[in-house]
Amino acid sequence: MRFIVMSVLALALPAASAWAQSDRAIADRLPLFSKNNCQQIRDPGNQLFCGDATLAAAAEKLSIAIETRLARLPDRLPAIEENAIWARQRNLSCGIVGQTAIRPDEFDQVKACLLKVTEERAAIVRDPDFDCLAANTAAGAIICADPSLALAETELNGQVLGLIGKLDPTAARFAFAEYGRWTRERDRRCNLVGKENLPLHELESAEGCLAEHLKRKTDEIRAAKGDPKKVFGRQVAARIPDTDAVDFCAARIHAANSCGNFLRINRVYALDSQVSDQEAQVTGEIEMAVLAPFTLCSKVASTCTGTCWDATTGRPQQGGGNKERSAGAFNVTRRLRIQRTFAFVKAADGWRCREDELAPVSSGTAGGGS
């Protein structure tokens, strides 16, 4: 047995030694590598940005452009996700695959590529029109293609930001969650859910619906005369126990637990319902996108997705399960889907959700991303 182990090590050591030598060769060509402790970064592309002054300056300019863009968007979460996808594509476009070390003979080529795409990205992000062009939803594509709709959305976004800016942090968190729910409800009303890949001419029939939504929300805000409490936080019940009701319930749970820092609710579906005169149970499916890494079995996982997760199967792991299999983390852009039955009770103003957490879920899947 000892002979077998030593033989395996003998085969592995040359490769490991070659990797270490390559890693050191790259470090020697990065003036700031030691000063900035870049050895702690395992992503080869980010190592270059850490250790090279020119790349670091370009990254700083991009960071400023991104923050400026985020500041003009009421719903920052899709933009955060889009930035994460771009970063991954940036590495691939410059020949960086995973955590494979950059070959010394390719260093100059990779550095030049990273500098070029980063400077180009900063210039693009600084353009206000990029907010529209980067839209990855069917509604976003329609609005982007119609100048009057794009102008109306820009006006609405500005008014929403102005109102939310008057709220304390907790109220603002709920207001942002409500804004996200508005957009999902809009897409359902305008029959645009799941139509991201359709040609634009097949979506033209939704233009009137989108225009009506933008006008109605803008009129509501104008009628509030600068008082955010007249716009946000007023609704505490749903009209009927359906998809909108499940969305309303899930959005409030996410806001209460600060889940927006880690996850974005993309879509909500009502799969089944049982309704009596005073009570209702609606089984819903909620699709979420990961915006920031979090451990598969953690407070974020349990409060924001309703369950721990199994890293191997991508399935819910109730009660924590095998710690080794749930000790990993979800990376940005992963898609999670959970199913859960929500209880509602009828009140004078509509159907009120009786749930204050997402756990326990009945089923779930984790996929997409990397």
Description:
It is a single chain. 49% of the residues lie in helices and 14% in strands. The protein has helices spanning 2-28, 44-51, 53-71, 77-93, 107-126, 130-133, 138-145, 147-164, 169-189, 207-224, 243-256, 299-305; strands at residues 263-275, 279-290, 294-295, 329-330, 335-347, 350-353, 363-367. With 370 residues, the chain is of the alpha+beta class.
Compute the CA-based radius of gyration: 24 Å
Spans of 5+ residues with little confidence (pLDDT < 50)? Answer: 1-21
Helical content (DSSP H or I, runs of 4+): 40-55%
Give the N-terminus to C-terminus distance in angstroms.
Answer: 37 Å
Secondary structural class: alpha+beta
Helix segment count? 12
Give the strand content.
Answer: 5-15%
Shape verdict:
globular
Number of domains: 3
Order of helices and strands: HHHHHHHHHHHEEEHEEEE
Quick recap:
With about 375 residues, the chain is of the alpha+beta class. It folds into three domains: about 20-130, no CATH class; about 135-235, no CATH class; about 235-370, no CATH class.
Top keywords for this entry?
370 residues; alpha+beta; 3 domains; 5-stranded antiparallel beta sheet; two-stranded antiparallel sheet; 49% helix
Q: Which helices and strands occur, and which strands form pairs?
A:
Blueprint: H1 2-28, H2 44-51, H3 53-71, H4 77-93, H5 107-126, H6 130-133, H7 138-145, H8 147-164, H9 169-189, H10 207-224, H11 243-256, E1 263-275, E2 279-290, E3 294-295, H12 299-305, E4 329-330, E5 335-347, E6 350-353, E7 363-367
Antiparallel strand pairs: 1-2, 2-5, 3-4, 5-6, 5-7
